Batch of 2 targets.
Target 1
Amino acid sequence: MFVVTPAYAESNPTEGTISETGAHEGDAQGGGVFPPFDSSTFASQLLWLAITFGLFYLFMSKVIVPRIGSILEHRRDRIAQDLDEANRLKEEGDAAIAAYEQELADARKKASVIAETAREKAKAAAEAERVSTEAELGAKMAEAEKSISAIKAKALADVDTIAEDAASDVVQHLLGGTVTKAEIAAAIRAASGK
Amino acid sequence: MSNDPISQFQIKNLLPIEIGGMDLSFTNSSLFMVGTVAVAAGFLFLTTANRGLVPSRLQSISEMSYEFVAAMLRDGAGSQGMRFFPLVFSLFMFVLVANLIGMFPYFFTITSHLIVTFALAMLVIGTVVVYGFWKHGLHFLKVFVPQGVPGVLIPLVVFIEVISFLSRPISLSVRLFANMLAGHITLKVFAGFVVSLGSMGALGVGTAILPLIMTVALTGLEFLVSFLQAYVFAVLTCMYLNDALHPGH
């Protein structure tokens, strides 16, 4: 009912179609027809819409959509790549920390082993020293004892000789005779109970 | 400019062209179609020219509109629907920019003409029908037979479905057209009140404040409507394309 042919609109400008359009008669153009229903402009609008929207569609589908799509895809790839890189670095860091901890534990173990062996060695050395010193001391003591007993024996032997001399002298003085040494020695031996 | 709220929709010949008795003149409507395409294409082209890995603000706007439409289409028609992405994106950007340009005073709103919105709606429905038959053959007719309907009701349901399918291009085009038309008329009427009251002396100027406030509020509302109608147009396009991709659902 709103759509009127131009011919109809022109031939019946006053009757119009509806009161609205009738109220706006005398406007610059359109012959009193409500502009959106003025079919005389349809062909022009359709043609120019087809041209402009067609070009717009072509431009969108050939240039803009691929371009924005590639920008977004590139960004997504880049973010994924960066995340992968960050993950890789984190893993590397974790591995480095683990290796460090391992090394530290090994070093601790080694250090304790070294300390242990050093302690053992020192203990062994001290023990050996003690033993050798003791042996040395024992040897020295034995030697000393030997020399003491030798000296003692010698002294005892000297005592006999001195007694023989003394007895010979005593006998000589008292008796004025001479006594052979052998007699004296025998006498002394008898006196001393030997 | 006259005070008449209808004159803003007047088509004016700028460059008369007549071929085979048909008036194909370059009009103010044609001029604003060219302007809409130039603004939308120029914006998208220039803001993405750097292909920045870290987008600038304007590049973000282009990317957001791309992702907005992409999400809308994926939700509405599944991942297979992405083959129609250039179409839906073009429709959304064209309608959105046309609506927004129409918000400038003295500018022509191309979407306030039924023939333009109807042509865009027919483009959508035509795509649905052609692609549906090309892809599914006669199985595309399943779109009129919902699953799980008792046998007795099928004729009635098919009748209703056919009616609803046929009314789609009408509802799609009239919704956009009527919203833009009504919004612009209302704005013009209230703005006209400001002028006519303002010319009525001191008391008139005082009362003119009221329609002025109304005009400001309506301008904000109209910007919302501009975006919302472009969105609704694109969402419904996605839903109709879903029928072409998956008939019988």
Note: Chain A touches chain B through 42 residues (CB under 8 Å).
Target 2
Amino acid sequence: MAEIVIRNLRKEFGDFTAVRESSFTIADGEFFMLLGPSGCGKTTTLRMIAGLELPTGGEIFLDGEEISQRPPSQRDIAFVFQMFALYPHMNVRRNISYPLISQGMKRRDVRAKVAEVAGILGIEDILNKPVGGLSGGDRQRVALGRAIVRDPKAFMMDEPLGALDAEFREHMSEELRALHDRMGATTVYVTHDQLEAMQMGDKIVVMNNAVVEQFGTPQDIYDKPATLFVADFIGSPSMNFLHFDGHIEAGQSNATIGNTPFAVPQQLESSNGKLVLGVRPEHITLSDEASLRAQVLAVEYLGTTQIVLLQCEYGDLKARVDSALTVSVGDQVGISFKADTITLFNSDSGKAIRSVLNDLALNNSGISSSTDNDSSGNGDHHHG
Amino acid sequence: MSYSVTEPSPRQKWLAGTLVILYAVITMIPLLWIMMTGFKTPPDSISYPPKVFFEPSVEGYVNLFTTRTRVSPEQLESLPPPENFAEEIVRNRDMVIAGPSKFAGRFLNSVIIGFGSTFLSIFLGTLAAYAFSRFRIPLADDLLFFILSTRMMPPIAVAIPIFLMYRKLGLSDTHLGMILLYTAVNISLAVWLLKGFIDEIPREYEEAALIDGYTRFQAFYKVVLPQAATGIASTAIFCLIFAWNEYAFAVLLTSGTAQTAPPFIPTIIGVGGLDWPAIAAGATLFLLPVMIFTVMLRKHLLRGITFGAVRK
């Protein structure tokens, strides 16, 4: 049970910077997701917390103790590897008991503890089997068993469902989440799958190119993206972008694209030049009255909803609308946006412009730490 | 493992089987001939045409392990009856046993030097290979090339410097000297082969052990070594075969206390005429340790020879 505070964490491999000045806080008992495309530094961050890589700079606090330079054996953190990494020359029981043996626990206590863990995971019947012949799911359970058997302060999981079949992944992710809720231990979970992150996480850190893009709850990250990258990476289909040249004044509640005015959440910052209007597919409405016209290029039927691919003069858009609506390819339609959900971005910096919608989320996102170094106070906010 | 896509027909199998057996028989004829010669009497061994069927005798083995002196028929008459079968065989040739030969001692030298240098090569080779495989070592590629470069000429090309060096250092004709020499030759092979095997072992296993509370060295010998067993076994066989069969340095650097079997076996020729059965018997016995060692590690060798290619 532990709170983990990451402060200005940095990792360089020779000339290559894997993680650049990252700061965020993982609250006690949280199911915390590190999300990002491959090569973004999320796994390196996880490995630094576990002690498998030593950071080039920055601090890691586990329960108030600075641990960034300690060997993994002195951190009391368990790790679940993507490829499970079960010791191939040992059977299931020995794999699970291995962390206890290293602590010098008495044989009888080890047996009892392994039996208890096997009960939790439902793997009593395979305890004496070699790990080689096990199915992916059973291997995953054994790897989890090896992690939970010693009651560590925190769990690190590196894409633990990545090696499983798609149909089984769903089931296993529920099992994982249930296990976490039962144990209540702080869990840090790396994934590149945004759906998995949204579905399972209490909090999400989105990383890209060695930088923390945003840090917050799944709702915040989805509704109030801090950067163009986050807006594009999260959601399927992802957020639509309309590129335009314009001028935004603090206090203003509308933006004009070409000659079309749009209502937007009240802006708190002014911005100039190349701007981007971001709107989620489900916040686009097709209506004949709207002044912005678009042509339907394709329709993708999804059951209760359908995705309509539209072409307007500022770019292509995807709208998610009710299936009951009759739309056919080639139709000319008017489109309007749900005003209070719109985020404006500055195209050059890639950052969201502050508005009443995202103000709080941006304060919490930790994003400011990547641009300037006065982020010392930034590590301490987490919601309770 | 890979399998061919279509099942071979019985006829193809029969053909393949015949070819393999034929090849095995051809390659084994010299070995078989040596083993047979060991059980022939000296006259049978040089008879012409060569005898394939003969009455087996252990005379070769008796001659291998003993030194004998010729006596006159009168003296032979005056001796008490022979105490054992060996004495009896020797007396049939008008000789008596004078004492044991040096073969047992030379054979033991071979065992000490062969297995000693194999052990040392594997021990140092495994540690070096692990370091090259896992750690960031400055100039690692150059060092590996340097290690391999010791094999780029026949070792015997440096025989004279080594001979002089060993004389100065007092290593001539010592077990330690021969072990060091064979280790120096074998270690490049060991490092390169073992590095390949260790590279194939996923790092996650060690990392899991580190997380589970073990030190790096514990992780190495509890997790990496068992995984590298296949590679270690096959590398050990290669090292042992080299050290066991090495002839040139053994002739040059050993003559007495540390002489190995390869230079000794031919000297049997000079003892009592051309004693082919004794030489054949020595060669047969000499073959056995490597054969036994290889058969013992056979399970690993089959996978190891493919240099880790079939690991999953």
Note: The CA atoms of residues 178 and 361 of chain A lie 28 Å apart.
